[in-house]
Structure to design on (126 residues):
């Protein structure tokens, strides 16, 4: 008889819209993922193979989050998806200078002069 984990993974495959199926599939494959990581395979290579074999359906960023959450491996910066902020990281914005106060009739510093001509030049119209 199959283990509970294997039976849960099989159930998740049969019911693709069940919430938590990705996590269940990951947990079922956790020993294999851990051994592959220990043997030196990258998380990206493991994830790609498991997706091709249709054993998992989670995104790469979720796969990395599960690896971190279950303590399988520290994920290196080179494995982080581009544009993703690692879980638990704080996003820090660069400081922005406060806008200078401009009194009515004054120009903004560095702005060019612009005058609206409400009567268009008929020669310039197409």
């Amino acid at each position: 008889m199959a283990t509970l984990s294997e039976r849960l993974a099989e159930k998740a495959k049969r019911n693709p819209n069940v919430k938590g199926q990705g996590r269940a599939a990951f947990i079922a494959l956790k020993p294999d993922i851990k051994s592959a990581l220990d043997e030196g395979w990258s998380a990206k290579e493991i994830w790609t193979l498991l997706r091709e074999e249709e054993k998992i359906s989670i995104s790469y960023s979720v796969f990395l989050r599960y690896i971190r959450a279950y303590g399988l491996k520290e994920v290196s910066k080179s494995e982080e998806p581009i544009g993703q902020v690692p879980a638990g990281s704080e996003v820090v914005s660069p400081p922005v200078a406060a806008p200078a106060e401009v009194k009515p009739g004054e120009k903004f510093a560095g702005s060019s002069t612009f005058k609206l001509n409400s009567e268009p030049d008929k020669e310039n119209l197409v």
Summary: The chain has a mean pLDDT of 77. Residues 60 and 113 are 51 Å apart (CA to CA).
